[in-house]
Amino acid sequence: MIPFPDHNQSPRNTYQSAMGEQAMGIYVTNYQLRMLKNATVSDHTFAGDVPNRACIFAECYCCNCLLFRIQPRGFCYHESVFHRSGLFRSLLYHSYRDEEKKTRNLFKEEFGRPNRWDTMDMGHGSYDKLDADGLPSPGTKVSADDAIIGKTIPVSRDQMEGQASCYKRRDCSTILSFNKSGIVDQVLLTTNVEGLRFVKVRVRSVHIPQIGDKFSSSMVRKELWA
């Protein structure tokens, strides 16, 4: 998928073979149905100005931009990219997975929204984004330290002594990382071979290019946003 590979040096073609997958705007056409752990999809994708047979067959969409070269003294040149608002923006998909398990004491974990008056070890984040079944609804906005999968387990007799005697369950929910935020895109709930439920929650966020971001190019180059 390298345009004009016979005009490049051999090391450049070798580097591009590893960078080609990063330069694809859409890595697969059915990405909306996949629940991968991490995925990136470009917002603005176009057909390449210099396509080849491999690109047409693989549907490698990319972002076209204008490159200006200034050669003031005749020896060195400076490069700059003329970009418009919204160019190089992408959608980031992060999937979180959890399942119900049985402990050695035959206690079964259950999905559900924890309550602070009868559940111990709860985080300081918000649990209000969860429904009664412990799962968020698609379209819900979540931020750092929010619970996206609610799950509890009954408290054993050894843990019910002292101040913990008023608690009946212990929290083991999945909490969003402190540097993550976005919108719940899709929720998948099913069962495994043991008949226990497991769930996948996909969170969608928008990534805006910042200074220092690295970009991949189909012309065997990598640039930094400066």
From TrEMBL:
EC number(s) stated in the UniProt entry for this protein: 2.7.7.6
Signal peptide boundaries: none
Keywords recorded for this protein, A-Z: DNA-directed RNA polymerase, Nucleotidyltransferase, Transcription, Transferase
Superkingdom, natural source: Eukaryota
Alphabetized GO MF terms: DNA binding; DNA-directed RNA polymerase activity; ribonucleoside binding
Keyword Nucleotidyltransferase: yes
GO biological process: DNA-templated transcription
Record's keyword annotation contains Phosphoprotein: no
GO cellular component: DNA-directed RNA polymerase complex
DNA-directed RNA polymerase subunit 2 hybrid-binding domain mapped to chain residues: 2-39, 84-222
Family per record: Belongs to the RNA polymerase beta chain family.
Name the UniProt record assigns to this protein: DNA-directed RNA polymerase
Source organism (scientific name): Amborella trichopoda
